């Protein structure tokens, strides 16, 4: 088992030789480090594009779709962010790897529906990038259920999670959520609003916990209420986490990752114990 990034994400060591990753970066140091880490960890030899022209040619001269792009904001020939515009206009999933960052830069990046952004401002930058790549390549294994009676809220959370490559189902009520959970035992995370007309978030959590424990499924509650006691009540009802709206994208994604990482660690430990128990039984 390998641990990636600074979060301690567990990685099985699976290889992704068919994944096509483009790195749009003009720094020899960073391209060398990124290529080395992606090759040794995932078995991926990324395509290096040092200029805007290189990037366009790499995309347009190949019929193989790009799995993921890693791009600096500025490249030679695209000093005003044209490279990033090009990638996002084509709906190519993109992780921004940049040393230029201010609050207004962040707002502009997130408005483009990028996958993630990593800052080149510390010695862990490349390792954080590797973790972000790994999450994108493996998030499709996670099935997340969003429960909210607001169509706008459902669409917003669904879009955010699909951007990160998760599989997503949505329910407009607690009753529909329970039905979907019965039909989809692979759902590992529920993100539920508190205030719903049929079954509120507390009652939904209690009903879920009556059949599925925290070792099988994680639950994050969300609410726009200013009642600070909601978080305590939700956690005591069986929830694993709680967030007050409005929350920022980065915090939401980190909370989702932390809960799914915990679930993965629990299941991995259970599998190891079962393996040891079988090995201890005399033939």
Automatic annotation (TrEMBL):
InterPro entries: Bact_response_regulator (IPR050595), CheY-like_superfamily (IPR011006), Sig_transdc_resp-reg_receiver (IPR001789). The keyword Zinc-finger does not apply. Keywords: Phosphoprotein, Transcription, Transcription regulation. Pfam families: Response_reg. Gene3D superfamilies: 3.40.50.2300. Residues 20-135, 143-260 form the Response regulatory domain. The modification 4-aspartylphosphate is found at residue 193. It comes from the Bacteria. The keyword Phosphoprotein applies. This is Response regulator.
